[in-house]
Amino acid sequence: MAISFASATIFSKPSLFLQRSGLSLRLRFSSFSTSSAALHSDKFHAHKKWRHPVAASLIELGGVKISREEIVKDDPTNNVPDSIFSKLGMQLHRRDQHPLGILKNAIYDYFDTNYPSKFDKFDNLCPIVSVKANFDDVLVPADHVSRSYNDTYYVDSQTVLRCHTSAHQAELLSKGHTHFLVTGDVYRRDSIDSTHYPVFHQMEGVRVFTPADWEGSGMDATSYAAEDLKKCLEGLARHLFGGVEMRWIDTYFPFTSPSFELEIFFQEKWLEVLGCGVMEQEILRRSGRMDNVAWAFGLGLERLAMVLFDIPDIRLFWTMDERFTSQFSRGQLGVKFKPFSKYPPCYKDMSFWISDAFTENNLCEVVRGIAGDLVEEVKLIDNFTNKKGMTSHCYRIAYRSMERSLTDEEINDLQWKVREQVESKLKVVLR
Question: Taken in order 75, 79, 85, 86, is the CA torsion positive or negative?
Answer without folding.
Answer: positive
